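Q: For a teaching session next week I want to show students how multiple molecules come together into a single three-dimensional assembly. I've collected the sequence lines for a complex. Could you give me the predicted structure tokens for the whole thing so I can convert them for display?
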Amino acid sequence: MSRRARLGLFACAGPALAVVLVLGFRGLPAFGHYHGVYGLVVNGVELSLRHATDMVTALNFDLRAFDTLGEEFILFAAVTGVALLLRELRDESQRGSAADDGAHSFSGASDGLRGASLLLVPLIVALGVYIVLHGALTPGGGFQGGLVLAAGPLAALLAGRYLALKRLAPHAALEVLDALGAAAYALLGLGGLVFASIYVKNFLPLGIPGHLLSGGFMALNSIAVGLEVTGAFLLTWTEFLDQALLIRRRSERS
Amino acid sequence: MTVVQIMALAVVALGGGAVVAVSDPLRQVLLLSIYGVALALLFFAFQAPDVALSEIVVSALGLPLIILAALRKIRQHERSQDEDSGAR
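A: Of course. Below is the structure for the complete assembly, covering every listed component.
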């Protein structure tokens, strides 16, 4: 299609889309004016019946914990697919051992940047652990905290130390973390079947609202999801970075 | 709607347009990363701090990193093909 034809098509379709969008948005309630019933019911129930102060986590990890099971396995399947597609092929080989660790540092990474990244790794990991554990109390939870946890080791990449990142988060450990988190979530659901005779139903004492150990099994679900998300995202990143930095086709090496 | 919310919306609209308008993939990735931060601020301004947290990591860090790695791999491949054709 020529440039002229494309512009012509846009001149017709663009305004039409704009009209439909404006008409659609005019029908929306204003921001902060919620008219649904479900949200109000959930808001009323979660603090009194579930002892959680963060409604979103209570919804994800208790009221609709079964949905989260499905979402978790979507992530698991996606990451398995990435790992399968980016595996080392027969005519490829991986270079990079402890011996040429220094070969992957950027020439531009100053001592200050390296020191800062050394400081960043524990700080980001601590923030991630906090967000995972306080899922039932404050905004956050397993998914958000897991993402922050996964970003921690990446700070080593900022200093150009990819092999240090690989040592901090070894491939096998990430795979175990991913699988363990997914399995733990499914098993926690089974715990509901055993102790409360309904799958993914809370079977732990609810505790006092606002305390760290409140909300029943939400905290455990949050930890399981946190582990899985950490493993899943770090696995994806290291698979891609392996391809870009370490894996070469045999013919390219000579 | 507060001033902060209107400003966040404007920045996101500008950023989204900028990401589409730039054609060089490398610059597009860097813009996408900045756009991710803007989007996170938007979510924060609209009282969704948990979404903002995941948006910062996914959009400002995770996705650009994957695209950067893919770009580097493509360039390596192109370079090795150039060398092959040059040798013949």
